[in-house]
UniProtKB/TrEMBL annotation:
Name the record gives this protein: ABC transporter ATP-binding protein
TM helices/strands, residue ranges: none
Gene Ontology terms, MF aspect: ATP binding
Keywords: ATP-binding, Nucleotide-binding, Transport
Species this chain originates from: Aequitasia blattaphilus
Amino acid sequence: MKKIIEVSNLSKRYGTKEVVSDLSLSIGKGEVFGLLGHNGAGKTTTIEMILGIKKPDKGSAQIFGKEARKHRKSLFEKVGVQLQVTSFQNNIHVDEVCEELSVLYQEPADYLELLEKFNLSHCRKQPVDGLSGGERQKLSIILALIPNPEVVFFDELTTGLDAKARREVWELLIHLKKKGLTIFLTTHYMEEASALCDRLMIIKKGQMLTTGTVEEVIGYSPYENLEDAYLWYMEEK
């Protein structure tokens, strides 16, 4: 299987606190890889280092065999990103932010079609500031898909969505996966990880506790479902 993302011995320290410690992983084409851990475990920092937003103190991260910090332009067309915190211009409307992003890419996805798929067509002319938390979250996912990427990063993908909207997003991502999209996601929802992920890594305080397929991660524990296994790894059960 062709490797899309390769991370080797990635580490990051802020002062005396090591937030990511010697993480290594690889993700193949068409895989959904989940990084699980509590708030402050180092999940977002790991994504930011892979994307070249933050510089690692040690180790390396490559997307399509290139470091993002050094090859932003060539990777720009292939990578979609949805981060936990997204800021927008004051008073900008939904269709305006979609259009502004679309013109940056050679072959963008049809944002009108994405708005319809995510049930946001009725919000086209609304200011982004006027959207509900769930609607803003779905918009951030749409913006990550506008580049028509080959790999996409989702950080806390469905936070703020109700159960129905969350399942709708899962169905869309499963469809995209079948078309060959590679997905790296972080999540607090064990049901989401079970439904979407081919492989997982659980981290605590920046260190890997375990990794493998969902079945392997559960199998290494004394429990029979991912939520109980996760709590066991975290020494909370």
